[in-house]
Design a protein that fits this description.
heterodimer, A: 260 residues, alpha/beta, Rossmann fold, 6-stranded mixed sheet, 4-stranded antiparallel sheet, 10 helices, 10 strands, 24% strand, globular, B: 313 residues, mainly alpha, 2 domains, two-stranded antiparallel ribbon, 2 strands
């Protein structure tokens, strides 16, 4: 594993009016790690994700992605650079089948021009076939290939999350941001999902996740960052962060920290 | 289907042929409107876009003497370019903002026709010559209803084929992802703003073609024809038919137009009947007429796939 920064947040800040959502945050994520982001509700976790992926424009500071400044880039452009994301609550194309979801998610693999797509030229049909094959492989890897023809919105919650991750992986990312991947899951589904996330990392994709389930975070992440009111209050190994007095006071409470 | 469409003008009486011609114009209008709704936006500028095509062909064929076969695609292009123009400021608006902004853009266009008497003729509008298709051939007079019906039929079938292909190719699927979950589409690397602009441009192009067909049959156009009451009719057709499938808007236009025609003796009551139909549709059949088969238990896929291949011919 090369210890090289893949993503750097430099003094990143976001205000909504008078309200400071994220306050001058510095953070470095290394290539190949699984990084957890924890903090109380409203502490700015999802805002940070939205800033990184271009859904929000920062009020100050910058974002460096593999050495280039991507501050203020549009979401589709950020994805094109290799930074994919999922959304809190499973956001899918709910009316489409599982396979169609992943096929559409391969948008960045398209080489055929709009004109060729319209004509369904042999070039375009060839490409559609390749994308379908890649999608099936991806679904296989995420363990949902048997469900490929079901309507996405009708899947059980755990599979919907797996599909959400598959959609993000289909863009060919170097890093994925997962927003509460195990939210609302039972322990079995949680374990399955965390296992999938480790598999993703083993394929060389850096993972950055926001999560409230401390058992899942501690067992999976290499490093954890804890924020509160938009400020970083602790960063380090899971054990270190969980025993950090400020983290216990702001977020975990005594009992949870003891049981971990 | 093909045989019926060819035989129809010979079995129905005089003015009903023109009714069928206008019906086809409205089918193009409604289906081109659906191209835009597949990306999620309900453009209230769509009827003015039809007007743009009508005015463009009126000026080109009337003032410049450009033959119909050239003025029709050119007028479509003019409407498409105006659509592209308004789509630029509209591309980042969503929901209600899109509604209001598109309405404003359409009204602005209409005001131009009223204010600039030269060349648009103000409230009186413009006179449009009947199309000269094959100069010198007397028996093929497109000022007559039946030849014009067939001209419209050919153009309509052609337009529907192109828009159907657009719907089933990957571009159409990409449009639908934007409607389904715009943020997810963005995070998949789809430049949603650009695709929305593309949909509005293509939709406007075909609305322009509908306008051309309308103008050359009516022989005269005025700004009021493309006002908000026409937009309301368009919305009623599309809500009644549904926008999920390609056939939805076609069904909506055809069924409601036929009801309107049957009620011709009670013309003053037609808007009220439409209003009642819309309220009943929204309450009992919110997916529109297209959702009826699945509501009464016929599997979705089969029925509509058969239906679409029929429309294609």
């Amino acid at each position: 594993m090369t210890h090289m920064a893949i993503l750097e947040l430099i003094g990143l800040g976001k205000n909504f009016g008078q309200n400071v959502a994220v306050n001058a945050l510095d953070m470095t994520i290394e290539e190949g790690e699984i990084r957890g982001l924890i903090g109380p509700n409203g502490s700015g976790k999802t805002t940070i994700f939205n800033l990184i992926t271009g859904f929000l424009k920062p009020s100050k500071g910058g974002i460096m992605w593999r050495g280039t400044d991507i501050t203020g880039s549009a979401p589709h452009a950020v994805t094109k650079l290799g930074l994919a994301r999922t959304f809190q609550l499973t956001t899918l194309f709910r009316d489409m089948t599982v396979l169609q979801n992943v096929i559409m998610a391969h948008h960045l693999h398209l080489r055929a021009s709009l004109w060729h797509q319209f004509l369904k030229s042999s070039e375009s049909r060839q490409e559609e076939k390749e994308i379908e094959d890649m999608s099936l492989v991806l679904l296989e890897r995420m363990g949902i290939a048997t469900r490929k023809d079901e309507i996405a919105g009708e899947l059980p919650h755990g599979y919907q999350v797996a599909l959400g991750i598959a959609n993000a992986l289909a863009t060919g990312p170097k890093m994925i941001l997962l927003d509460e991947p195990v939210g609302g899951m039972n322990p079995v589904e949680t374990d399955e999902t965390m296992q999938r996330i480790r598999t993703v990392r083993d394929q060389g994709i850096t993972v950055f996740l926001v999560e409230h389930d401390m058992r899942a975070v501690v067992s999976t992440c290499d490093k954890i960052t804890c924020i509160n009111f938009g400020n970083k209050i602790a960063e380090g190994s899971p054990q270190m962060v969980c025993s950090h007095p400020e983290v216990i006071e702001a977020y975990l409470g005594e009992e949870v920290s003891c049981s971990l | 289907m093909t045989a019926v469409m060819i035989a129809l003008p010979f079995v129905v009486s005089g003015y009903k042929v023109d009714f069928l011609t206008m019906l086809m114009v409205n089918v193009i209008l409604a289906v081109s409107f659906r191209v835009i709704t597949t990306t999620g936006g309900w453009s209230l500028a769509h009827v003015p876009m039809m007007g743009a095509g009508a005015y463009a062909t009126a000026l080109m064929s009337g003032n410049l003497g450009i033959p119909f076969w050239f003025s029709m695609p050119l007028a479509g292009l003019v409407a498409g370019l105006i659509g592209l123009g308004i789509s630029y400021p509209l591309r980042r608006t969503e929901g209600f903002a899109f509604f209001v902004a598109s309405f404003a853009a359409g009204e602005a266009l209409r005001l131009c026709w009223i204010r600039f008497k030269i060349p648009f003729g103000g409230h009186q509008g413009l006179v449009v010559p009947p199309p000269m298709l094959v100069p010198g051939v007397q028996w093929l007079d497109f000022a007559e209803a039946i030849p014009y019906y067939f001209l419209t039929l050919v153009v309509t079938v052609f337009c529907l084929m192109i828009m159907h292909r657009l719907d089933v190719c990957r571009i159409g699927s990409t449009f639908k992802t934007i409607h389904s979950e715009e943020n997810l589409a963005k995070s998949m690397g789809i430049n949603t703003a650009r695709y929305k602009m593309l949909a509005l441009t293509i939709g406007s192009f075909f609305a322009g073609i509908a306008g051309v067909l309308l103008a050359h049959r009516l022989w005269a156009i005025e700004p009021d024809q493309f006002g908000f009451s026409t937009t309301l009719y368009l919305l009623v057709w599309v809500v009644f038919g549904g926008t999920t499938t390609f056939s939805g808007p076609i069904l909506g236009v055809v069924v409601l137009s036929i009801i309107g025609e049957l009620l011709r003796p009670l013309a003053d009551w037609v808007p009220m009947v439409y209003g009642i139909i819309i309220i009943l549709t929204l309450i009992f059949l919110p997916g529109g007429l297209e959702s009826l088969p699945s509501r009464i238990g016929i599997p979705k896929g089969k029925f509509w796939r058969a239906q679409i291949t029929v429309e294609d011919r």
